[in-house]
Write a structure and sequence with these properties.
Distance between the termini of chain B: 60 Å
Largest sheet of chain B: none
Largest sheet of chain A: none
Strand content of chain A: under 5%
Number of helices of chain B: 7
Oligomer: heterodimer
Low-confidence stretches of chain A: 91-96
Order of helices and strands of chain A: HHH
Helix content of chain A: over 70%
Strand content of chain B: under 5%
Helix content of chain B: over 70%
Radius of gyration of chain B: 21 Å
Number of helices of chain A: 3
Number of strands of chain B: 0
Radius of gyration of chain A: 17 Å
Mean pLDDT of chain A: 83
Shape of chain B: globular
Order of helices and strands of chain B: HHHHHHH
Distance between the termini of chain A: 53 Å
Structural class of chain A: mainly alpha
Chain lengths: 101, 175
């Protein structure tokens, strides 16, 4: 028996919520980046679910593009963290990135 | 079959997502991210998207591993990355936003906004082709989505060059 698409979408919505809450609430930059990755993964799950619902492969193609976007995001974010840590010195990583008030 | 796999997998996904957010150290969060990407690949397989599942395993899991190695090497003593300062309005906004999104999701779930599908049959016939749907997705990629695919290639190349430039500049500045 097939699982209804609404269950997949509910999982995706909860995953998106957890991701966005983590991206806002977490203080360390690495975990924030991982939360953004969780958030984008939830989007991919939505697209693939909708692709099955509409019996169209376009959603899967967009899911592939989204995975590429996740990769680009994470690579750039990690590079920014590396450059920020190097700027302040690796011995004091906790002081390197501050959000402006 | 699908039900027997879907509910355990989604339970694993939700628990690991919460563990990523609540994890005390980025080291553990990256391990949980590895589990989460693998379980999501399982969900994509259940949805009949083999190519997306394979790409998820290759790209996203590799990225989780890269973060793990990065945490292990760059922050050797504390396993702790750089930190943002946190204001009270961050917390308030986060909690309000989470309630808003969950309310919208619940409304869509119980209000039956998601349309029921009559079209499973045609996709399952697509999926049950000899080579799975990878052939069909590839044909779609190279026919209808050629331009977006090229743009994605440029995006990845730009991210690569940007990452190298960001890291290299610091080296030159120090040297």
């Amino acid at each position: 028996m097939m699982v209804p698409a609404s269950h997949y979408l509910l999982v995706s919505a909860v995953l998106f919520t957890v991701g966005i809450v983590g991206a806002i609430l977490r203080r360390d930059a690495l975990t924030a980046i991982m939360c953004v990755s969780v958030l984008l993964n939830a989007l991919t799950l939505t697209f693939v679910t909708i692709a099955r619902e509409l019996a169209s492969l376009d959603g899967q193609v967009i899911g592939l593009f989204l995975i590429a976007v996740i990769t680009a995001t994470m690579v750039t974010g990690l590079a920014i963290i590396i450059s920020a840590v190097k700027e302040d010195g690796a011995d004091k990583p906790e002081r390197s990135i501050r959000r402006e008030r | 079959m699908e039900q027997a796999l879907f509910y355990p997998l989604s339970a694993v996904i939700l628990v690991t997502a919460v563990c990523i957010v609540c994890g005390r150290k980025p080291l553990y969060s990256s391990l949980w991210l590895l589990v989460l990407t693998g379980s999501l690949a399982g969900l994509y397989l259940l949805l009949g998207a083999e190519l997306v599942a394979a790409m998820q395993m290759i790209c996203a899991s590799a990225l989780a591993l890269v973060i793990l190695i990065f945490v292990l090497t760059a922050f050797r003593e504390s396993h702790d990355g750089p930190k943002f300062s946190q204001q009270r309005w961050h917390v308030v906004t986060g909690i309000a936003l989470s309630f808003l999104i969950l309310a919208a999701a619940g409304f869509a779930f119980w209000g039956n906004i998601v349309p029921g599908s009559q079209a499973h049959q045609s996709l399952s016939s697509l999926v049950m082709q000899e080579s799975g749907n990878t052939h069909a997705v590839g044909a779609l990629l190279f026919r209808r989505y050629t331009f977006p695919m090229e743009v994605t290639a440029i995006l990845l190349l730009t991210a690569l060059i940007g990452a190298v430039t960001l890291v290299k500049k610091e080296h030159e500045g120090k040297g």
